[in-house]
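Possible regression after last week's pipeline update?

I re-ran a chain I had predicted before the update to compare outputs. Posting the input and the new output here so someone can diff against the archived version. Not blocking, just want to make sure nothing changed silently.
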Amino acid sequence: MSGDATLVLLLLLATILLLVTQAARIEVVSLGIIVVLGLTGVLGPVDALSGFSSPATLTVAAMLVLSAGLEKAGIVDYVSRSLGRSGEGGVRRLLLFLMLPTALFSSFMNNTPVVALMIPVVLSLGQRFGVPGSKLLIPVSYAAILGGTCTLIGTSTNILVDSLYRSAGGAGFGMFEFTSMGLVYVVLGTTYVVAFGPRLLPKRTVLNELLAASAPGNYVTEIIVRDGSRFVGRPLSEILEQSRDVTILEVVRREEAIVGPGQNFELEADDVLLVESGARAIHSLLSAHGVEHGTVVADEERISIQRVDLRVAEVVVTPGSSFTGSQVRDLGLSRRFGIQVLAIRRLGQHHKVKIRDWRLRPGDVLLVQGEPAPLRTLQEDGDFLLIEGVERDLTFPRKAPVALAILTAVVAAATLGLAPMVFLALAGVALMIATRSLEIREVVRAVDPAVLLLLAGTIPLGKAMEQSGLAQHAASGVVAMVEPFGPWVLVGACYLMTSVLTELLSNNATAVLLVPIVLGIAERVGVDPKPLLVAVAFGASASFATPIGYQTNTLVMGPGGYRVTDFLRIGLPLNLGLAAVATIVIPILWPLV
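New output (post-update):
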């Protein structure tokens, strides 16, 4: 192995380690890759910066904007709520009527905003039909992943594989070339989740479900039982006898949250009670000796709760949020919006102590308190997803037909091969702006810098792997291991290699890094590279076993109160089953020779 290949291998290993451990922000890792490749001379300046001008990067950015136009039009919201009314009749019927429209939308839109729009719908329907959100949210995420495999623009992974294949001199893929395989995935995946999901998924009562059940005109706040209070050592029933219209939603004791405690639950000093009642009853309760208002985080300091007429809501840190890695004390929510942070939930655990110093991660849920209007404004900034506590307005704006027409025109032109996909997507963005379907600030907000910088860094890394010979070395190793077993096993090996790496990194990074290796494998064995590239595309998209492999899994983790083991329990069998299906079906649809 040459010196350049050794250096690229070390850089690749460092990149994987940093992305898996999240020791550094994606933006920092990506820029570091570019700098190292350029300064060491592994790549020239033009090649080191090629990720910024790559058709793949520009196409992904443009499709994010087109998805934002459809999101603003309210199409997903309108249709999903309409279809959701047909979900009555049991959890399996509800799953079916939630998963099918999600898969349909995800075939033409970016998966993340589709799931973001579906989360409040899912929680609302779950409450209506008595089904916990934890039984529904993972299936909706999976449906978005499965639906995204059906078209060239359904997921950024397909766009990347197509663009990198064309850059290497290949013919590329058509708009609906993935559809037959994608429909197989949708049918099998949906059948599996509907059949086994109700048993494999947890039944958890999370805070957003309790808040949604609050009576109109009631408020949710926290009180602390101090040492010396007559309630210490006594059961909750004494509080409930004194204030009969008070509901104890949760007791937090030394970082452990007890949701819905029973009347015989005995209180200890410094227990924090989350209570729901009218303002007068809460005031009466606070007049008892040794009971005081809780505190909230207002930027850098904890302050006492002064009002009980504010709304309590839950917001999720979105993937790609600019606040990822920031401490709660530095968010500035109180200064900018008059919003205070009550608590944080991470990996199914509720935390209230020293939360000022917590650094946020995608999927974290913040329990916040503020006026309804600022809470809506907080969501509009795009860093948080408001999932509970403030009703969202349902609209079907006049621009919806325009947004639909623009996307339809882009898809039709791409299907007919009238122009390269990157130019068609950029033309669609221009039309969105010209018709005022999107404002410039909304276009800027739709372009996720973390995603684009990841592509800008990994695309030249993939080029360095190819030019240094590292990709060829890796291809030789894979071929040596599986060639004796036949070309069909080669498809399965490429799929499994992609699927495992995706669960640790991300779908986009995995696709970019493996395409050069797969092209090298096809060249050495003498087979058509298309089936192997399809294996990479589907292996990178079909990420079900962890919450970090795909953004939609990260997004539903907090609202559903999920733990990592929940994804593993239901997702690992689905991963393995679809891998077996892909090994058999891909060579049939795309012959190797």
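Follow-up from reviewer: compared with the archived run. The radius of gyration is 26 Å. Marking as no regression found.
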